């Protein structure tokens, strides 16, 4: 078991708030595809375990159907909200963002969230091209409203490309502090210039699916897996911790999940070492030889191959 006293550092956001550099997510395998009114106690217990181990960044979303479980975990853990960093996302109820956030807060059993995100560019009723600039700008104005009301300390987006980010910035009074995207060595967004856009405008990057190269069977061939294994041996950690550290060493915040306490504990070992600049670059180079998108592939690949 990893040392429970491992400290997770924070990254300063553009508005001055700070986000922990490792998040615990309640999407992917926890995602509810049917009736979301029934409480999944396995998720409640897993989230409580994450909190016990020292994870403070807790990531949810309206569409996951898991906000109630996350709320119970927070309540039953008896950890003050001020010691946590709670994130949720809006969609499909984008037409009334203040009401959507109020509903999320009720499920989460909190008075505010630390970070509220627009979950994607594909609003209800839009085609594969995504929402129009005008619709994105209208939604962002509502995001600014909930921040002004104190219901969200920080606001941002998820799954946005430079085109949608430009639309936000064209009318924003408050710029997004973060864009949460699928990011791993096989999906580095080089051709779109997305990460360069983030850096230019002071927008932080959070990564979901950071372990894709080791958890998806269709990504385990090629040179990268062997190199990850060699680094894991060097640092006496797993390939998963190498991938998490690879993100952290680039100031990218990884969000991961597991139902297994040992695995969640082991992930914290990513805080105990640093990759060399040459190792970070080698992972980039080997990963760039393969393109693989694990989430939203048909929609994104019609607009962005990076």
Provide an overview of this structure.
The protein has 306 residues and is of the alpha/beta class. It has one domain (11-211, 251-272): Alpha-Beta Barrel (TIM Barrel). It contains twelve helices and ten strands. The protein has helices at 41-53, 67-77, 97-108, 133-148, 162-171, 194-201, 212-215, 223-235, 239-248, 261-267, 277-287, 297-301, and strands spanning 10-12, 18-20, 23-25, 57-59, 85-90, 113-118, 152-158, 178-182, 204-208, 252-256. The strands form two sheets. Strands 3-4-5-6-7-8-9-10 form an eight-stranded parallel beta barrel, surrounded by five helices. Helix 4 links the parallel strand 6 (113-118) and strand 7. The mean pLDDT is 94. Belongs to the aldo/keto reductase family. GO terms for molecular function: oxidoreductase activity, acting on NAD(P)H as acceptor; oxidoreductase activity, acting on the CH-OH group of donors, NAD or NADP as acceptor. Keywords: NADP, Oxidoreductase. The record marks 89 as: Lowers pKa of active site Tyr. The active site is at residue 64.
């Amino acid at each position: 078991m990893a040392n429970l006293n491992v400290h997770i550092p924070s990254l300063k956001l553009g508005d001055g708030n700070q986000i922990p550099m490792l998040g615990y997510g309640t999407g992917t395998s926890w995602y509810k595809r049917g009736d979301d009114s029934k409480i999944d106690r396995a998720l409640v217990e897993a989230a409580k375990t994450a909190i016990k181990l020292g994870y403070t960044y807790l990531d949810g979303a309206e569409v996951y159907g898991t906000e109630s479980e996350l709320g119970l975990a927070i309540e039953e853990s008896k950890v003050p909200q001020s010691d946590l960093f709670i994130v949720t996302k809006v969609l499909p109820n984008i037409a009334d963002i203040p009401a959507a956030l109020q509903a999320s807060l009720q499920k989460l059993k909190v008075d505010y969230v630390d970070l509220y995100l627009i979950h994607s560019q594909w609003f209800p009723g839009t085609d594969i091209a995504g929402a129009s600039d005008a619709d994105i700008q209208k939604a962002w104005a509502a995001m600014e409203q909930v921040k002004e009301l104190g219901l969200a300390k920080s606001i941002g987006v998820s799954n946005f490309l430079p085109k949608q980010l430009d639309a936000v910035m064209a009318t924003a009074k408050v710029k997004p502090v973060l864009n949460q995207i699928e990011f791993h060595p096989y999906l580095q967004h080089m051709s779109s210039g997305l990460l360069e856009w983030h850096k230019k405008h002071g927008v932080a990057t959070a990564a979901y699916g950071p372990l894709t190269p080791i958890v998806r069977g269709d990504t385990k061939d090629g040179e990268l897996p062997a190199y990850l294994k060699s680094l894991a041996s060097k640092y006496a950690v797993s390939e998963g911790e190498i991938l998490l550290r690879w993100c952290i060493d680039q100031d990218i915040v990884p969000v991961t999940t597991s139902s297994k306490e040992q695995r969640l504990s082991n992930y914290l070992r990513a805080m105990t070492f640093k990759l060399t600049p040459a190792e970070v670059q080698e992972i980039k180079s080997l990963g760039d030889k393969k393109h693989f998108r694990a989430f939203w592939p048909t929609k994104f690949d019609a607009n962005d191959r990076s």
